[in-house]
Amino acid sequence: MRFRLVKRNLLALLGVSFVVVTLLFSTRVLIVSDNDTSGPSNVVQVNRGIHSDEVVKFNFGSLPELTQSVYNANYKQCVHNADKFPGEPQLVLVVQVHNRPEYLRLLIKSLEKAAEVHSFLLIFSHDYFSKEINAIVQGITFCKVLQIYFPFSTELYPNEFPGQDPRDCPRDISKDSAVKTGCLNAEHPDSYGHYREAHITQTKHHWWWKLHFVWERVHAMQGYSGFAIFLEEDNYILPDFFHFYKSMIEFRKNTCPDCDMLALGNHNGLTDFTRLYNKVLTTGWMSTKHNIGMAISREVYYKLMGCSNEFCTYDDYNWDWTLQHLSGTCIPKPLKVLVAQGSRVLHTGDCGLHQKENCRPEWASQKVEEGLKMAKDGLFPPSLTLNGAEAVEHKAHMKNGGWGDIRDHILCNNYAKRL
């Protein structure tokens, strides 16, 4: 019944007058039980995590069964290995996962080698659902693991919004032609005259939904006062990742209390690591530099939540460029970030959203192993040194488009609704 209701209500998105009611209802399904009577006690019960002996069974047999599995998993929030590793997590890592299992295996391999990993909570947020990826994640035995599932994945809506409806306007059709043909979103091209592509819009949707779900809905995060560090499936962490994180926390407390965020990674890899192994700098947050190993506190999450409408309507399909736009506009004081110059997060992916061919994870693995041999003497530094303090200011940029459809704006905005 739950699947049929969500499906029917999402179909109503095709008429703008029904959008708000539709998505409010759909979002509500994520957070309340079938017996909800709108009382506070029911909402509290939703977030009860369960232990690994009560694993939610995923059924891939049909689209309705898969959708029901997704909603059940988000409702029950099974924490794997909870009995083996009791107590509150010392660090929460949130990994956004699509469909690159070999890179995901590399990330998990690096996590297994990380010092004190047994004290972590790993949250894997999926927008692609497969037996292989579930098996990889559920094979983790070295710390607590929670899987959450993006319920508006294009996989669950292959022929309708938020997937690609066959009645949607083609990407490159002119607006005049679109209006004449009567395609669904004719009135809402992006800033460059292009119409939405579902596989392009999904990453920003998933990132914003994940941010809300992690901080607002995940039971295991209630009472957690540390940072949540956001990774992607094609990242690789160094063995002293947690040690360096704790050093950054201490450094921030003593030297940079106005630093809003941490960046444990950068895009320089292990270049010059032996010189920069214990160096940090402070600067304004920039998309192209600080979107890897990004650590966000609950306080910063609330700042972002206050800018939900601006995030959700800004015509850029990239979450990180959108975040840079918010820093210094909707968020009056630009976000200040404390950056690890000797990166503790590596980017292994040689393919992704725009490149699908010639993906060679085995080359990435070899490159990482060779780099770590050279970097090993710089791991676990006893203290950190400030190597620069750059200006913290708003950095304007040319928006990339791809996010002009009003349906995307409304769906995105409703992730933040508290019902």
TrEMBL record:
<feature type="binding site">
    <location>
        <position position="127"/>
    </location>
    <ligand>
        <name>substrate</name>
    </ligand>
</feature>
<feature type="binding site">
    <location>
        <position position="347"/>
    </location>
    <ligand>
        <name>Mn(2+)</name>
    </ligand>
</feature>
<dbReference type="GO" id="GO:0000139">
    <property type="term" value="C:Golgi membrane"/>
</dbReference>
<keyword id="KW-0479">Metal-binding</keyword>
<feature type="disulfide bond">
    <location>
        <begin position="256"/>
        <end position="259"/>
    </location>
</feature>
<keyword id="KW-1015">Disulfide bond</keyword>
<feature type="disulfide bond">
    <location>
        <begin position="307"/>
        <end position="330"/>
    </location>
</feature>
<feature type="binding site">
    <location>
        <position position="234"/>
    </location>
    <ligand>
        <name>Mn(2+)</name>
    </ligand>
</feature>
<dbReference type="GO" id="GO:0005795">
    <property type="term" value="C:Golgi stack"/>
</dbReference>
<feature type="binding site">
    <location>
        <begin position="96"/>
        <end position="100"/>
    </location>
    <ligand>
        <name>substrate</name>
    </ligand>
</feature>
<feature type="disulfide bond">
    <location>
        <begin position="169"/>
        <end position="183"/>
    </location>
</feature>
<dbReference type="GO" id="GO:0009312">
    <property type="term" value="P:oligosaccharide biosynthetic process"/>
</dbReference>
<dbReference type="GO" id="GO:0008455">
    <property type="term" value="F:alpha-1,6-mannosylglycoprotein 2-beta-N-acetylglucosaminyltransferase activity"/>
</dbReference>
<keyword id="KW-0464">Manganese</keyword>
<dbReference type="Pfam" id="PF05060">
    <property type="entry name" value="MGAT2"/>
</dbReference>
<feature type="binding site">
    <location>
        <begin position="202"/>
        <end position="206"/>
    </location>
    <ligand>
        <name>substrate</name>
    </ligand>
</feature>
<dbReference type="InterPro" id="IPR007754">
    <property type="entry name" value="GlcNAc_II"/>
</dbReference>
<protein>
    <submittedName>
        <fullName>Si:ch73-91k6.2</fullName>
    </submittedName>
</protein>
<feature type="disulfide bond">
    <location>
        <begin position="351"/>
        <end position="359"/>
    </location>
</feature>
<feature type="disulfide bond">
    <location>
        <begin position="312"/>
        <end position="412"/>
    </location>
</feature>
<dbReference type="InterPro" id="IPR029044">
    <property type="entry name" value="Nucleotide-diphossugar_trans"/>
</dbReference>
<dbReference type="GO" id="GO:0046872">
    <property type="term" value="F:metal ion binding"/>
</dbReference>
<dbReference type="GO" id="GO:0006487">
    <property type="term" value="P:protein N-linked glycosylation"/>
</dbReference>
